[in-house]
Specification:
Blueprint lengths: L1 H24 L11 E3 L7 E9 L5 E8 L9 E8 L7 E6 L7 E8 L5 E7 L5 E7 L10 E2 L6 H4 L3 E4 L2 E2 L1 E2 L9 E8 L3 E8 L7 E2 L7 E8 L5 E7 L28 E7 L10 E7 L6 E7 L2 E9 L8 E6 L10 E4 L3 E9 L2 E8 L5 E7 L21 E3 L2 H8 L9 E4 L23 E3 L4 E3 L16 E2 L2 E3 L3 E9 L6 E8 L6 E12 L2 E7 L3 E3 L2 E3 L2 E3 L6 E8 L7 E11 L4 E3 L3 E5 L17 E3 L5 E2 L2
Parallel strand pairs: 6-11, 27-28, 28-29, 29-31, 30-32, 40-44
Antiparallel strand pairs: 1-26, 2-3, 3-4, 4-5, 6-7, 7-8, 8-9, 10-13, 12-13, 13-14, 14-15, 16-17, 17-18, 18-19, 20-21, 21-22, 22-23, 24-25, 25-26, 33-34, 34-40, 35-36, 35-41, 36-45, 37-40, 38-39, 41-42, 41-43
Length: about 625
Amino acid sequence: MKHKNALQRVLVFAISLIFVLNLFSLPMFAEALSVQKTWSPADGYVQNRIPGIIAAADGSLLVYWEARRSDESDTEHTAIEIWRSTDNGQNFTKVQTLGDGQNTRYTNPVMVVDQEDTVHLLYVSATGSDGVYHMTSTDHGLTWSAPVNIIDAFEKETIGWDMVNLGPGHGICLQNGEHAGRLIFSAWCHTGTFDVYTLYSDDNGKTWQLGECADGNYDETAIAELSDGSVMLNSRQYTVSYDTDTSVPGTNTYNLGKPDSADEAYRYITVSDTGIGGWSDTRMDTALQNPSVQGSMVSATVNGQHVLIYIGCDSKTARENLSVRCSYDDGKSWSSPIRVKSSSASYSDLVIVDQTVYVIYESHPNEKLFLTSFSLSNFEDPSTVFWVGKGTASEPYLLERMQDMEKLCNSEQAYANTYFKLCFDPDFSTVVNFKGIGNQTVFAGCFDGNGHTVINDLNNSMFAKLTNEQNVTNLNHKINVFSDKNYAQIGTTEDFRIRFVSELNCAPELLSEAGFEVTIVYRGKTANETLKSSVVYTSLSGDGETYTPEIGLYFLACGIKEIPTDDVVSVSFRPFVTTQKGMKLFGNTSDFNAVDFDLIYSLAVSNYECNYVSWDRIVVGAH
């Protein structure tokens, strides 16, 4: 009997050991990361919510959030708190509180650091009805300027929104490409549906403008720069995101929809070469499931390699399983998740400093904020997949930006029985030496243009060689070298001159010549002149002002001097370019009359460096 009990104990121990060992072979759903710092609401407040985190140029960590006096909705009385750490997040000091939370409704603070090391903070007051404010810090977040209201940038009279907001999380400062230095935040407006835009500045925050609306009904949007300098928006879809947790405060705000299934409870992606317009078709990223909750992204260069990091709730039905994933191919594939918190969690943000990822996140129900960190070395490097999709008829490869097109252009594969789908309007105005799809090996695949338009393909270089032109479908072409905007200025303090200006969308490298065809009628005589001495400018200056093209990329400008002023002068002009392949393209014709010098009317901008053609060169003859 004694031996039998001993044997039973051994068996129980062995079974228990096997069970414990099996636990270590299962996915780890327990708390994966230890908490480094906790922020509880201060006296008089009940919630800390909507957190963000960035790193200043000196390495200081800045965290910021809404301090809420009520948990009843997203629009009750709130203040904004800013905290700063100079020792890698070990200790923090509060450096700023914006508002008192009794008379203020400040929401969605977002920050970014520009290329001059200035920190920019933007936040919204009363969902935009009281304004959107911009502050700066030139000492890495220690002290801040007075707020400036930039609400005019949001074009309320044009768009007609009843609320506007930012982020949440952080903005970006582009590091690569021709738009390096551009500051960009995601923004969203409610006009019956939610529309996502980007708010951007090309002068380090002195002025702000609103970009083009992205396709789809989305609101809270993460933003990140990709490896080629293009910009990705990663959004929750407001009316489709599936959330069964009815305890979330404010879930009925603006008629939040909850469908019968969670089949579309994922993040939604769109990409732009510039970060302000030309967005690709929005697609569902089925690697990133998501309930009705915010997510965040950040990009960085680690050991010479670009990485994209995403954080969000890895669930379709509840705010839980907060997880971080890494992509080495601009979000086309993602690593296995690192679990930050398995139980209830909500909004979050992250930043990369050297090899360390710092994460700030909410508990759920939302009350406290937590900081944690881990090394990027925890991520494996998955095999790189260049295009999203499988190349089949039902799941074609998606071409979302010019980098995707260039990869296809430079490939040596024929791609027989392979399917591609265009997801944006490729604009060749700034593309030089695109050799054409099929230039390496004749393209034998199927190319669905998806109703998109090829813009300014001056050299007809979209396709070089095809096995069958009928395999290219649903594709439109548009040559729009000139915008519809032509300008002219007449007169200077020295003599009588006419300056011709037109907005140009085409890269000068694609052109062999450019200029204006001009007709001048004076005292019953007509002079016709082709002005080939035109110069391409990125901006024009005059009268103490600097002007940039409203629509195009450049100004084409030149002029005629020493025009007589003692009689009526009628002028018509139209711009033209000739491409490297000899194609001649024209813009709109513009007409105006000038009676005398005193009545001259300035129609547009001037530039005192424009090339001029003397009146003596004009041959006056019969019309």
